[in-house]
Each structure stands twice: as C-alpha cells, then as structure tokens.
Amino acid sequence: MPVRQLPEQVVNRIAAGEVVERPASVVKELVENAIDAGASRIDIFTDGGGRRRIAITDDGSGMTHADLALAVERHATSKLDDEDLLHIRTLGFRGEALPSIGAVARLGIITRHAGEPHAWSLTVEGGVKSAIMPAALGQGTRIEVSDLFYATPARLKFLKTDRTEAEAIREVVRRLAMARPDIAFTIAGEERAPVTWAAALPGAPGRLTRLGDILGADFRGCAIEVRAERDGVTVEGFAAAPSLTRANALGQYLFVNGRPVRDKLILGAVRAAYADYLPRDRHPLVALFVTLDAQEVDANVHPAKTEVRFRNAGLVRALIVHALKEGLAREGRRTAANTDGAAISAFRPSFASRPGNWDWRRSPSYPVSPLPSFEGSAAPAFAEREQSAFDVGTPTADVRFDEAPAADLLDRPLGAARTQIHETYIVSQTRDGLVVVDQHAAHERIVYEKLKASLARNGVQRQILLIPEIVELDEATVEKLLDRAEELASFGLAVESFGPGAVAVRETPSLLGKANAAGLLRDLAEHMAEWDEALPLERRLMHVAATMACHGSVRAGRRLKPEEMNALLREMEDTPNSGQCNHGRPTYVELKLADIEKLFGRR
C-alpha cells in the first residue's frame, strides 16, 4: 500500500482520540482553559452524563476576535511564550483541546475580552468552522459542547452509563477544585443536585476548608498538616490520621505545580510513609501539593497531561516521605477514635434503636444495672525499660484505687490510671474526661519503637539462651527463615538449621523477654512469603520488628498493678506514634466529660 497524506478531518479525529477519551476529558480541558484565563468563578453544567451537553462558563479574561479565530486551529495556544516545553507554567499548552473537541462534537464558543466592545461567537461542527459573529456576554467565556462523538459514532459504544460518566466528570472537577481553592466552582446537571464550592481564603486554612468541603467532615476533623522543603522543592498539604483509611488508593490526591496527576512514584512514597501505621489492605487519605521549578518536571509525557516526569525523582520521593512521617510523628497520639466526636457518636445508636422511641427521661422505671465488680488479682510488674516488665510477679488483691488520683497525673495527656476492666483495657481519668487504653495495642507500639531506636543506635541487644529452643516447622518455612537469617540476626534473633524441618533459636532480643519462639517464627515466615526483592531492605526489617513487637507485648488478659498501668500510660506519652499500634488500630479512646454529660441528658 503506498504512503499517502491523511485528510485534515481524519488527522483531527485521530488527535481527538488521544485528548477526548470521554465526556470527563472534555470537562477537564475546558475547565483548565478557564483556570489559565484567570477565572475567579467557573460554572459547569452537564446533561446525559456529558454526552448530550456540556456547558462551561467562566469570568476569565476572554478572547479577542483574532484570538477566537485561531483558538480552534490545531496547535494554536496562548500559553507558551516560546518553544521551550520545559518551561510550562499553565495547565494547558498543547493547543489541541478546542480543535479536538470540535472534530467529534458540536462546539459553540461565546467570548468577550475586556478590550472588545462586545462578545464574539463561533461554532465548529465535525471540524467545520462557521464565521465569527457578534454576540452578547459579559466578560469571560461560555463554551457549549453538544452531541459528543456524533462525528465518530463508534466511540459512543465505549461510554458507560450516564450516571457513571457524570460521576467521572465530578471527580475531574473535584480534583481541579482542590488544586485551586481560590476559585469558586459550581457543578450542576440532571444527574444530581447542584454543588457549589465557594472561594476559600488563601493559605493552609483555606486549602483545608476546600478539602473538607470535598472530602468530607471526617477528613477535616483528623487532617494533619504536612510541609517540607529542600533544594527548591516544596511539599505541603494535609494527610488524614492513620485510622481514617479506605480500601483503595482513590483517596490519594496528588498535585504538581497545581496540576492534578497520577504518579506511581508519589503513590509509592505515600505508602512507604504510612507503612508503620496501617494494615496492609488499607490506604490513607492524603492531598499533597508538590511545587518546584518548571524546568525540573516534564508535563509533556502524556497526551492527557495526567502524568509527569521529575528530573530528580529521588529527591521528590524522599521529601514526601519525610513530610508525611514528620507530620504523623508530630500528631502521633491522634486517632480517628479521638477526633470529631467519633467515640461518643458510637454510643448513640444504642439509645436511638430502643423500641417505641423509648426516652429514659420520661420513664418512671429507668432500669439501673449494678456496677460490675473489678475485683481480682493483678500480676506482672511493668517496668519501663527492663526485661522484668514481662515476668510474672506477685498478684495483688484488688485493682481498684482507694486513694484519689494525684493532681499532676490528671493534667497529663493520658491522665491517671483508675482501674483495669476485662483484664484488657485500662481506664484512666483526665482533668476533663476519661481515656480507655488497649494495653496490648499500646505496648505493642512501645516495643516496636524501642526496637527501631535500638537498631538505629547500636543494634538490638540480644540474650543468649542457655538451652537453644528447637522449633519444628515444615521444610518450606524453614528454608524461608534460613534465607533471611542475616536480616533476622540484625534484630537479635539468631536461628540456624537443626536438620530437616526444624530450626534452632540460639539468641532472642532482650527487649522481648521470654518470647514464644515457635509462634514468632511462624508469623515471620508468613510475612516473608509476601516479600519480593523489590521491597527495600529497610521495609523488610520493619516488618520483622513489627512482628517481634506483637509477640513481645503485654497481652490482653494479663492483670496489671496500678503502678504498672501508670507506667504504661507514661511510656505512651513519651513514645512516637503511640496513637496506633503497628497494625493501624487505635491504642486508646478518649471521652470528654462534656460529651458524656450530653449522653446522660445533663447538657
């Protein structure tokens, strides 16, 4: 077949196939143009999921008669001062959006520049332009796109339902609205009720207001501000507390120089920063904004401009990890259970679900249950940094406190211990409420942080067993453990082969005391089965530390003395990230006295 020049209309439709994938792509391109035009308000209307109609109005600078004539030509743009594609400071720059849309749909443009006596209008249908005509409009631009893909009917078969396409449009607008909280957005259509996000104040408070409006009150209530800067690269934004998570990574919003992007490098950095806080199947909510010199990032690597390439990708990743870890450590004792009234709200359904809308305030026979008895024996002495913390000690007769708590302890963040219930939870009293602590989860985090600190300082202290402990396992598990023996040794766990299907444990970390070697090795082998060579050594070592911490912690079901409970609370206050255990669960729940009084009708 001979080589031939394609007709202009076919060329335009091929280009449109790269730029206009679905109605949401049209909205993205047109809203980006409005933002680049300096708009302070953008209104978006869609019909039929954008398939039948898309209308976008802005109050930006508008276009002159001459600009309008060129705007619908291919590769015509006002956003590049020269031919340097590494100096891009606008969202759009390719000059393909309007001609691509006009090639596959009916496109109508009305625009007015401040220097023009009136507005001008132009239509493009299937790539054919009309004459420019006078029109009526205030300053700004109004663009209408109707009958999308009428010129390429085959593309219609690949669209989803109207509801799905409408939701994709809303997601595009949400991301752009997060990037520009200084611009007011309104999105409306027959699919759902109109939504308006008012322009917010500049700075971090305004950004958090916009993020809260879009991501919800839960995010606003537990958002942690993060910021880091190095070598001209700035990372800032907000990250949710570790106990507010989702089952996928769709709640991670990333922006580079104001451009919403999806970047595997940044997603990997977020996952690494949260690795010590979340279960493996949960993902955090974050909104991160990376700002750097335009020449340090290439935005021209994807037709839809949704991906970027960094010149110094390692620096960007390290800065993101540092910013997130610093913010999470700073707010280490915060959990979703302690913010935004989540703990108190968990009590309300039990009252509301009583049959007949029962109201205790109107009932003459309000049922009163006897208080549970907390009598029993308490066992091991909890010492702050000694192996004796895990030894069984002399039991006490009663875990109730007869004397009043010390005033100085009431002013501590986690208060003064008052009792232990179900041999699992410590109840402490603060100046303005009470705290319920999961003793195993709390001590698990303490041991984990000690292991990490010891490893970073001078290696984990180990204890040599007088008689090596022989652990029988299947041969495949033994091979996995022996292959990682060097990594285990760095944490003070020395294992060696003891014939087929068995290993000998000769040394264990001192911090763990008398550990259950068999259970520990089985759990370690399960984790190692999920590792691959792509997982960094540091992360593999932290998995080992987390598993060891779980086995070396005060277990649920162990009775503690009053001084042991207070010692654990003080350790929590001095330990980074003590608000969550290694698996992402909260270690304590705080109930404010004012909220408790509301539950009992005292307020």
List keywords for this structure.
nine-stranded mixed β-sheet, Heat Shock Protein 90, 33% helix, 603 residues, elongated, Ribosomal Protein S5, domain 2, 27 strands, alpha+beta, Ribosomal Protein S8, Chain: A, domain 1, 19 helices, five-stranded mixed β-sheet, 3 domains
Q: What do these coordinates show?
A:
With 603 residues, the chain is of the alpha+beta class. The chain folds into 3 domains: 8-197, Heat Shock Protein 90; 203-331, Ribosomal Protein S5, domain 2 (2-Layer Sandwich), CATH 3.30.230; 374-603, MutL, C-terminal domain, regulatory subdomain (Ribosomal Protein S8, Chain: A, domain 1, 2-Layer Sandwich), CATH 3.30.1370. 33% of the residues lie in helices and 23% in strands. Strands 1, 2, 3, 4, 5, 6, 7, 8 and 9 form a 9-stranded mixed sheet that branches. Strand 21 (416-421) and strand 22 form a beta hairpin. Helix 8 runs parallel beside helix 9 and helix 16 (517-528) runs antiparallel to helix 17. The longest helix is centred in the last third of the chain and has 19 residues, at 439-457. The model is unreliable at 350-399 and 532-537 (pLDDT under 50).
